[in-house]
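>> received
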Amino acid sequence: MHITLRQLEVFTAIARHQQVRIAAEALHISQPAASMALAELEKQLNTQLFDRYSNRLTLNDQGQRMLAQACELLSRANDLENLFLHDSHTISGSLSIGSSLTIGSYLLPDIIATMQQEFPGIDGHYSIQNSEKIIDKLLRHELDAALIEGICHHPSIAVEAWREDRLVIVAPKDHLLANEPEVSAQQLATYPWIVREAGSGTRALFDYAIVSKLPNIRILLELEQTEAIKQAVIAGLGLACLSELAVNDAIQEGKLSLVETPFLDLKRHFYLLTHHNQHRKPTLEAFLALCHSRL
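>> returned
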């Protein structure tokens, strides 16, 4: 049996994109070449790695078993290549990091800037989506590590509490609730809310900490972008519950008002995630060390 790195590249690309055509485009090869590479790999292994549904390919159980090892082999091959392309004392190579939206907007840029300054040889790729989508990407080995706001219980993922955060309730400037030293649950329930979408870490805590206490809460809008929610509140559409990282500037500028709710526990953690089967390549170790320095 002679499995090639090209076959593994094609296999992982198809697993990621679920279509041979898109995988071929990502690898800059022809679609027939990608199809042939996959067919040869499955023939050598004497097993199918995907279930076929029309033009979509989904990993089956055998493919799932194969994916982690294929990604590790490709990662180690990349490390070996970089070992001789660069100074042996210089950390270099690829790195794919995912983050949820709040972290990606307010904390990740500083980490990226430091990475570029301290490790110019690292070729970083960054994906910013809600926590649920980032976890899915990590499970499919599309990411080396992730920073999220939500809680992850998947057995394949190692979860480390990274930093503390706090959600706050905000209202338009000069809102009636902003003048109250302490607001009750009944008062909060009388106003419409603008919230994050299902699947985000912020929404998960909102549902747990607030919706459970306000069964008749009226959700006016669900939006995927924190900035859009802030602008909706500034426009007077309702209340919102967001990370204090996201609203501090607007509160200080007088665009938003803070609503005091001491009866609500809105503290949370940000989490650093890695896959248990992930190869701990030098670029990943550098990123993890940098995150630990930001505790």
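>> The chain has a mean pLDDT of 89.
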